[in-house]
Design a protein that fits this description.
The chain is an alpha+beta fold. Helices cover about 20% and strands about 35% of the residues. Strands 1, 2, 3, 4, 5, 6, 7, 8, 9 and 10 form a 10-stranded mixed sheet that branches. The longest helix is centred in the middle third of the chain and has 14 residues, at about 95-110. The mean pLDDT is about 95. Bound molecules: coenzyme A (COA). Coenzyme A binds near residues 86 and 97.
């Protein structure tokens, strides 16, 4: 079912991304990630090929204040993946990140998805607390080590690029 624009508390509107949002967001994300150079992780393709499972949030002045980009796995049946979620530093701890995630979870649940995964840096304490608050568990298994207090895979993406692998089961949509 297609969803149109919706208004959230605090006059934040959520809508599907369009390609023009890429240029508006890519210049901001390094600042949102506390100066970490994450913009290469957000190429334009996310705003071309994954808009049906992604969302952006705008404030009352039409400024972009949040986004989530993810997809239904082409290879892992029943699984979806969140690539990035971010909210503007001026709009944090008001439930916006949770709302964006819930929209994504609803998108994929209605496509039959029962498991959602995401990875993050073990040193990103905000992201780890956020994912745990949303019901995600850090994968523990062969190869994980306790890094910064969280089970994580050393060198997961490249030498020195350690990652926590989070996952959460989804219940089928009601009705
Ligand atoms: C992580 C992030 C998306 C959270 O966005 P947000 O809009 O602040 O999230 P919410 O307000 O919906 O938080 C939901 C819950 O998550 C937890 N949480 C969120 N940020 C937290 C933080 N920095 N420290 C501790 N707990 C946190 C809290 O339990 C919170 O509920 P509460 O405020 O009622 O206590 C945001 O901080 C951000 O963009 N960080 C930089 C980018 C990033 O690291 N993204 C995630 C990795 S891709």
């Amino acid at each position: 079912m297609a969803r149109g624009p919706m208004t959230e508390p605090g006059e934040i509107r959520l809508r599907r991304p369009v390609e023009a949002d890429h240029a508006r967001l890519v210049g901001q994300v390094d600042e949102w990630w506390s100066g970490r150079k994450v913009h290469p992780l957000l190429p334009r393709l996310w705003f071309q090929h994954f808009t049906g499972t992604s969302w952006v949030a705008e404030d009352e002045s039409d400024r972009l204040v949040g986004f989530i980009v993810g997809f239904v796995s082409p290879d892992r049946p029943g699984e979806a993946y969140v690539h990035m979620v971010g909210t503007s530093p001026g709009h944090r701890r008001r439930g916006l990140g949770r709302t964006l995630y819930e929209r994504f979870l609803a998108d994929v649940a209605e496509r039959g998805i029962r498991r959602v995964t995401s990875v993050t840096w073990p040193g990103n304490r905000g992201s780890i607390a956020f994912h745990r608050a949303l019901g995600f568990d850090a994968e523990v298994g062969p190869g994980t080590q306790n890094l910064y207090g969280t089970p994580a895979y050393p060198d997961y993406d490249a030498d020195g690029d350690d990652r926590v692998v989070f996952s959460r089961e989804l219940r089928p949509p009601a009705g």
